[in-house]
Amino acid sequence: MKFTLSWLKSHLETTATLGEISAKLTSVGLEVENIENPGAGLDGLIVAQIADAKQHPNADRLRLCMVDTGTETIQVVCGAPNARAGLKVVLARPGVTIPASGEVLKKGSIRGIESHGMLCSAEELKLGADHDGIIELPADAVVGTPVTDVLRLDPVIEINLTPNRVDALGVRGVARDLAAAGLGKLKAMNDAPVRGVFASARQVKMSLPSGEERKCPEFVGRTIRGVKNVESPKWLKDWLTAAGLRPISAIVDITQYLTIDLGRPLHAFDDAKLSGDVGPRLARHSETLAALNGKTYSLDAEMVVIADQGAALGIGGIMGGEPSSVTASTTAVFLESALFDPLNIAATGRKLQINSDARYCFERGVDPTSAAIGAEIATRMILEICGGEASALVIGGAAPDFKRVIAFNPARVKSLGGVELPAAEIKSIFERLGFGVATLKAAGGSEIWQVSPPSWRADVEGWQDLVEEVLRIHGYDNIPPTPLPRAPMPKVVLSPQQRQVAFTRRSLAMRGLNETTTWSFLAGAHAELFRGEALRVALANPISSDLDVLRPSLIPNLAAAAGRNAARGLHDCGLFEVGPSFHGPKPGEQALVAATLRAGHTTARHWAGTRRVVDALDAKADALAALEAAGAAISALQTASGSERGGAPAWYHPGRSGVLKLGNQVLAAFGELHPGVLMALDVKGPMVACEVFLERVPQPKKAKVGAARVLLKASPFQPVERDFAFVVDESVAAEAVLRAVRNAEKDLIAEVGLFDVYQGPHLGEGKKSLAISVTLQPKDATLTDEQIEAAARGIVAAVEKACGGRLRA
Amino acid sequence: MTTDTTDQLREELLAAVAGANDAAALDDVRVGALGKKGRITGLMKDLGAMAPEARKAFGQKLNVLKDEIAAALDSRKQGFDAAALNAHLATECLDVTLPVRPEAKGTLHPISQTMEEVAAIFGLMGFEIADGPDVEDDFHNFTALNFPPGHPAREMHDTLFLDPADDGQRYLLRTHTSPVQIRTMMTAKPPIRVIIPGRTYRCDYDMTHTPMFHQVELLVIDTETNMSHLRGCLQEFVRTYFGVEDLTTRFRPSYFPFTEPSAEMDIGCSRKGGELKIGNHGDWLEILGCGMVHPNVLKACGLDPEVYQGFAAGMGIERIAMLKYGIPDLRTFFESDLRWLRHYGFAALDIPSVTGGLTR
After folding, report:
1. The last residue of a domain, from among A105, A130, A151
2. List of chain A residues whose C-beta atoms are within 8 Å of the C-beta of residue B251
3. Are the C-beta atoms of residues A265 and A363 closer than 8 Å to each other?
4. What is the distance in angstroms between the Cα of B317 and the nearest Cα belonging to chain A?
5. Strands A118-119 and A88-92, how do they pair?
6. Would residue A486 count as lying in a domain?
7. In chain A, what residues touch B111 (CB-CB under 8 Å)?
8. CB-based contact (8 Å) between A550 and chain B?
9. Are residues A767 and A666 in the same domain?
10. Are B201 and B320 part of one and the same domain?
11. Domain extent at residue B85
């Protein structure tokens, strides 16, 4: 909302400076967004008069002016064609900053003649684009006074109005708030009824069906005849222009003015274009209306139109119609000042996509008592500017009763607002804002007040709103800050799972991965490749077709990110993200996933030459690290390879992927991404990835008591390491062999490692050799050769039994 | 046999030790003195033939001589060994100016780090962390938060809706973290102190808006907390978070459907020369919205507004991260540009703590 300072001062008697007004507006909740002050920067410029102007001896286009400053007469060289004797001008003396250039004026010499100042054009003062000549001040301007006194430059204030402040929709409401906050006095307003000199032939006809009357409960009309729809006076045009409106004609401008001035939209019809009585009715289904903005709207039966006996004339409370609009030749108008239902206005405006000032006011809520007042003020202005005579008012319906009483305990200002204020001051604030206050003694001796909000405060409902009013006017900045009371020693506030998620993040970063954050949505076609058994969750109003489905997996966004980095030349890429994936459209149908993705090589090229292309086991290592950080017992996990039933999902390479399971529960999937999927994503592979389902990691049933670890029993006896090489079928999982070894001598075996995998012609077709080191750790005595031999035999037998393996010869 | 003999022998042998040029020559000296047929060994053998008195005296002398020579030999030998080792080491040379084997340095995203910083500060004030779903229903996102159907404030949220689900409901992506306030109040009993960090969504994408962003919400519900606490709590937060001990704050009335009274808080800043600086420099920067929880919200959650009260506040994670760390463009948070992640990201072990230092 924009208005000029002089407009504000038409309602507010104040000596406050622009800066004080601006600060107070923000302080009472009418946040100042911007102030355009054309007078800023004009300090030091004074009114002067050219006493004499003659030709410059050395230049055809320059004039030599003797200029009266009020205290002396100085010589100024000026190039303006309109520099002539007798003219009152704007003079800049040396030392003054010229607004347009920002430079300080110096005494100078032009073509050999000294110049002791500059006569300014509008452009030089940033007051307009006129640079053909110097500013011509009115003849009555007083020589020697500051030009800011003469130019009457009107600063424009723009405030950011929150939707609740229906009272400040108009400049008068803003002035009222400032006055309440102590910044001056609200001027009286002449809203006395204008005596009708004839009875309006046109009556109001309220035609809303029963039960729908609230959509337009009151309609005040009046005929004004014998008017001349002239151009608006300059002040009105200036104010409207400053408010961002386009002046059209006096009658239209007066209705525009009242919308901004009082937050009271009105409409004026050309009376000659109406037939019969006028009033609100519901629009007919598919009824059309050519509106004032040049567009034709198709209406529905929820909407209210203002109609005469023939057709709809305007969309009630939103926009008038073109055929019934006033023109320069209008001689009689029918004025409409009606009340509309905010919700219906909002719905209608939304459906028709019309953003008008009238809609803006009515959907927030216009003062229910303002229909008649608005009509009177508008009438008075029309008569003043356009002449003519007014009929008596014709009124349909009635304003709804706004009166209500809120029980208010003044102690609430302290208990909710945190501010200690004397009851008298609280009461005074209410009264300054137009609230009625009656005091009741409550039984307990504490005072309970009955506070009645004024008609313009539909937003005030409960005692909490009243506390806000008191704080607002007293100043939020006067609320003393009090630290929140708290325990002397802070307690643990993170749940075990929250700590694990944080730890998972940092563990993955420790592994050299860069955490990223990607959208929760992506292109539907890409989502489809990763959907698996999840439902497709599409957005009804996506921001773009690239972001139209909620992600069923974090991988496609990470793969796309790696692809973008590769396109920038960063081919070696390790990313991770911890965030939601979505498997259904309802609240809660999402899972918290830690996902990693690696592309390119394990490290950059370097002299030691130990880098390699990332593979599925890098992704497995990421998955295991994430699971361990998330609290999973790694030793209890089983790996199922991608080719098995229940293996990794279809977006992984079927032969180079797997899942990590705890019992039947899949905790993570990992592997190389399917080349076909990468091709569909338009990224170059290979890429490896993992998805860890953090919420599936079992949590300890009960919080552990104490932090004590299981007692370490380090054996004093020498461990023995033995190596075995088993030949097994190629299809046998390494994990199966290792498990068989581990289980062979559970008490004795401390460590099992796989240190070589070999395939070669002499092993036979479809065979492989696994070289395994086993550490035997005795607990009670040093192992004898016989014991070691027995353990070795047990291990070999176990592998043979479980995996059909035999010792390699 | 006389003292002269041993003195002379000492001199000779010590001279021989000193004169040995390498380990082999030194060994010859050792054999000549202490070997089976060595000169000291020979004298030792002769002791048996001496009278007991003389044997005792001379034996002592011989032993002293023997120890002395052995020590001299030893010391000389160590010198040769060290020289030999040095000569060998001189041949083993590595170019230590070679770059070390590369290791990838991982990083945390500024959003994660900022969330942890926020949690670290509010944790000290006893706030726990709550979370809720990204997909919400109209009740939790709007109605329970006192956005009546058709209210213009709903439109300000530019909601992203989902296609209707099989239950006929039109779910949406939460436009703020406030629905978790409702979920918290409906399940937990006051006193409540929670922060709610999370993803939020709006149908808006330009220079300063992204369709997904992050917020952190604060909720305090008990019977006593008032606006003075709200201001105190938030003031302590911004001072700690930005590391400006006396940072001034400004409270302004504002409007949110779910709070009454509502406020916005500004912090001191400077915009001189187009550069934003946090501190008491006379200008103001809006940082968050807040207020006392609206009675209608309390009622929607089954809490009696005549008994319970408290505050809620919310701020943008990216915004406070941008302000603190000088990150110029919101959109870059979601681009996954490795150069950006490495530059603005945080080391894995850079865990924020108020007592240990919030910011490294």
Report:
1. A151
2. 476-477, 479
3. no
4. 13
5. antiparallel
6. no
7. 517
8. yes
9. no
10. yes
11. 3-89
